[in-house]
Amino acid sequence: MKTLFVCSESDPRETRVAVIPSDAQKLAKIGWEVNVQSGAGVKAGFSDDDYKSVGAKIADASFISQADFIVAVRKPTEDAVKTFKRGAFYLSLLDPFNEKGLIKAFADAGVNAASFEMIPRSTIAQKMDVLSSQSNLAGYVAVIKAANTLKKILPMMMTPAGTISPLKFFIVGVGVAGLQAIATAKRLGARVDAFDTRPVVEEQVKSLGAKFVKIDLGETGQTAQGYAKELTPEQIELQRKGMAKVCAQSDVLITTAKLFGRKAPRIITAEMVAGMKAGSVIIDMAAGSGGNVDGSKPDEIVITPNGVTIIGDTCLEASVPATASQMYSSNVYNYIAHFSPEGSFVPNFDDQIMKMSVVARDGVITDERFIQK
């Protein structure tokens, strides 16, 4: 495989591009013919001329039917898949647990499709881990968005006019996004509390200068992939009670709790929101997968009767498209380069990275979890 096509994103909310000019140049150096759909990088700050200056070609949408390898940020439509060349390789975020019809469309079209969500959490795969790279940025943006929404400053100030107390942030879920949110809020001068069902992360929280909120939930832990295990209804209720007091004292609540392949847990109830201070802000980072917060809505801002602002932005990283594209593009390049030992892309289905990330191959859905029943 030698011909690569970089798609323009069809979702009007999407600002990222799958490959930036510097990585297009690196791909060209290892033998790829890089074709970029006209305008694909504009929202991220990369013009067609930027791509042409590094040797990439600018193509229209119809070129997708000729490409050996297709990359994008977001998933395509089922109709679009029908236009791909049989035997082509497709790579993007596919949301395979919720898009079984799309995975079937790839199989029916004879297109080999890989989903970035399925990249294993291993040392060698870290440089291809889109979920981590984008979640890192999302955690940063969540804090900035909260700071811009608040009517107060974050840090403590001692002035002749009096002392201003630091604002209090509460971060629920201490994965990649949560850790970055903690670090960013601390840099801006806020006091930070954090909670996670995995006691193992307490040391990480403290190392960033935050306080770890301890709630006895009984036996918890994490999966082999590093995700939090799903709680029982009884444990969720204990968690809610333990967090209610902290929420009431917080100026900002950021929730990041997601369950891989399943609906996000609803851990912040309407009663807990009603107990928060007027003017406080909630960023529900799980709004796109069901939401952690009662009352949050995907890609909407909700103001509750008691004056709490709930923000359900489903793609916070798209607020910093140049950086987000840089990181995503690096993940794309590293995936391709890993399977291009001599410049040409050679699928190796014995490799654990490809074995786990590919969801459709040679007309067959490779994982029974993605088969419609």
Folded structure, characterized:
By secondary structure, the protein is α/β, with parallel strands linked by helices. The chain has 2 domains: 3-118 and 321-362, Rossmann fold (3-Layer(aba) Sandwich); 130-319, 3-Layer(aba) Sandwich (Rossmann fold), CATH 3.40.50.720. It is built from 11 helices and 17 strands. The chain has helices spanning 21-29, 48-52, 78-81, 100-109, 130-149, 176-187, 202-207, 233-249, 270-274, 321-338, 352-357, and strands at 3-6, 33-37, 57-59, 69-71, 89-92, 112-115, 157-159, 162-164, 168-172, 191-195, 211-212, 252-255, 281-284, 301-303, 309-311, 358-361, 364-365. An 8-stranded mixed β-sheet has the order 3-2-1-4-5-6-16-17, sandwiched between helices. β4 (69-71), α3 (78-81) and β5 (89-92) form a beta-alpha-beta unit. α1 (21-29) runs parallel beside α10 (321-338). It is globular and about 65 Å long. The mean pLDDT is 93.
Distance between the termini: 34 Å
Strand content: 15-25%
Query: What is the architecture of the largest domain at the second tier of CATH?
Result: 3-Layer(aba) Sandwich
Helix content: 25-40%
How many domains, in number, for the residues? 2
CATH topology of the largest domain: Rossmann fold
Number of strands: 17
Describe the largest sheet: 8 strands, mixed
Question: Per the principal axes of the C-alpha atoms, what is the gross shape?
Answer: globular
| The CATH homology group name of the largest domain | NAD(P)-binding Rossmann-like Domain
Overall pLDDT level: 93
- What is the top-level CATH class of the largest domain? Alpha Beta
Q: What's the helix count?
A: 11
* Alpha-carbon Rg, integer: 22 Å
Global structural class: alpha/beta
Which strands sit side by side, in order, in the main sheet? 3-2-1-4-5-6-16-17
Instruction: Extract low-pLDDT stretches.
Output: none
Secondary-structure element order, N to C: EHEHEEHEHEHEEEHEHEHEHEEEHHEE
